[in-house]
Structures are given as C-alpha cells and as structure tokens.
Amino acid sequence: MDLIFKSIDSILIVVLAIFFIWKFVYEIRHEKRSAVILLLLLINVYFIAKVFNLVLQLM
Q1: What DSSP character marks residue 31?
Q2: What is the pTM of this model?
Q3: I need a labelling partner for 47 at 20 to 30 A (CA). Which of 23, 30, 40, 58 fits?
Q4: Residues 1-38: tens digit of each pLDDT
Q5: What whole-number distance in Å separates Cα of residue 33 and Cα of residue 39?
Q6: 3-state secondary structure of 1
Q7: How many CB atoms lie within 10 A of CB 47?
Q8: CB 24 within 8 A of CB 41
Q9: In this structure, what are the phi and psi dihedrals at residue 33, rounded to the nearest 5 degrees?
Q10: Which runs of E-coded beta strand occur in 1-59?
Q11: How far apart are the first and last CA of the chain?
Q12: So where does this one cross the membrane (predicted)?
C-alpha cells in the first residue's frame, strides 16, 4: 500500500512540475503580471527540487 502511495505521489509531483513550468513560460510569453511570474518561479523551484530528489531516490 505504501508503494502505491509513493508512486501516486511521484507521478503527481512530476505532473505538477510540468504544469507549473508550462504556466511560467506562458506568463512570460504573454508578459502578464510580474507578481504571478515571481510566484510561479518559486513554485517551479520547489517542484524541480522535488523531482530532483525523486530522481536521486531512484538511483
């Protein structure tokens, strides 16, 4: 059961990381609000660190 939750957590983290990276690029291209861009940048850094941690755990 724990393995199932870890797998779901890993998939969810990767999907959220991809989504927030896409949203960040979208906001930059359309030059929307700078506060939103900064917030998305912080969220992206968090999720990239989480994905990097997942990759290190798999190795």
Answers
A1: T
A2: 0.67
A3: 30
A4: 666 667 777 888 888 888 888 888 888 788 777 777 78
A5: 10
A6: coil
A7: 19
A8: yes
A9: -75, 135
A10: none
A11: 22
A12: 6-25, 37-56
Which pair of tokens denotes residue 21?
């990276």
> What pLDDT was estimated at residue 19?
87
- The first and second tokens of residue 23, run together, are 């949203």
How many C-beta atoms surround the C-beta of residue 40 within 10 A?
A: 19
Q: Are 46 and 19 in contact (CB under 8 A)?
A: no
**Radius of gyration of the chain measured on its C-alpha atoms:** 14
| Residues 6 or more apart whose Cβ sits within 8 Å of residue 37 | 24, 27, 28
Owner of token pair 């969810």: 12
Which residue reads 């990097």 in tokens?
Answer: 52
The residue type of 13 is I
Residues in the chain: 59
